[in-house]
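Quick one:
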Amino acid sequence: GIIAFVPSKFIEKDFPGHLLKDESISFDEVFAGKEWFPTATPAPQFGFLPLITGTLWVSFFAILFALPFGLSVAVYMSEVADHRTRSFLKPVIELLSGIPSVVYGFFGLIVIVPLIQKVFNLPVGETGLAGSIVLAIMALPTIITVSEDAMRNCPRAMREASLALGATRWQTIYKVVIPFSVSGITSGVVLGIGRAIGETMAVLMVTGNAAVIPTTILEPLRTIFVVTVLPQLLHGIHHLGRDPLQSRPEDLVQAALLRSFLWIDHKKLLFLLPIFQSIRLLYDLFQIFRRCP
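Output:
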């Protein structure tokens, strides 16, 4: 199809095409629309349906991947591992929750995306499956930590009573410990998935950023949260391309970050991403201290 701007005086009454009303967007067009084209002229298209379906696809498979693995690791650390192994694994897992999301996105871009493209023989590896795996990895530290703490709070008397009645260790785990800790496990899952679903940069780097309704998880898609960060990156590129001397520092950082993804190879980008993150953090701290009385 073709979208064209034609003055109203040249449109005949029996015009067979579809007329887009200028600057008028209905409720149905927003929540049931299948096209996301906010820069269309004269009438932008703000159909949320591709964004909502993409978010649901990624979130569902992220939970599907993260929940069994995270719960298994939590059970192992709480009930099976010895003190030395637990004291080593717990700080390492908690440290993973402090890694910036852009680092997870970069890991998915250079490891997970090529692997998916090769395994499933796809033209591109940036798919919803890559985004689900990255979000699952990001949610694992929170799920494991909170679930493990909840299981360790199970009273020792309940474990000893179960063992005294003839139950094995695994029967005690899934019949006594897990039911007692189900509220804490649920909290860990909600916190972990909630933190992962709201991520933007990691998903933007590995899902293909295609505003279309996906039919399978092996297709590029776009989540609704990516829409909040993409205009800022493009805004930084716009300011940097016009007049770098008058650009704001955050625009320069965002533009440099986006241009790095386009022009710099993966090995150099591995060292530059922490620098960009540090610059942005220092600028935010400077703005906070400057506003303080």
